[in-house]
Amino acid sequence: MRATEIRCFWLYSFTVILLTTIPYLLGLTAEGSEWVFTGFVFGVEDGNSYIAKMLLGASGDWLFRTPYSAAQQSGVLAFLPYLLLGKLAAGPELHLQLVILFHLFRIAVIPLAIWATYRFVDYVLQDKSWSAWATARWRSRGENTSRATASAAGGGPAPTAAWWRCTGTW
Fold this sequence. Notes:
Radius of gyration: 20 Å
Shape: globular
Strand content: under 5%
Distance between the termini: 9 Å
Structural class: mainly alpha
Largest sheet: none
């Protein structure tokens, strides 16, 4: 990656981190005596299942066992990142620690996800300007690259590309 690409990569990563963290900070600050913020705004059921897996790790488990079966289980090496994150939490306010650890992990992984997406899309499209646009589109909208690229190919640059483009490429 060239210096321009690296600069734009970090700018985009920081923007995504900032925009995805704001709703959680608002939820945390709105917490009061009437209700407790569980740590999630979107996909609350999934988020709480991640916290449950982290709680297994905090209680000493190294292997995942499903709570939805009464059958004897030997455990399986699954959901390891959550189990490992749980190992970092202990003591009072365990739930809050787990939520904070989850979000710190989420923030740390966002640049890796963006980088991996960009590298994959660049490999497939082999055009830096389209790769940058498709990465921004994929990460910001959750749509797959082929669909995003197909919609843009006929109608010129999409609105995502206008703010994304630092110097004409990533």
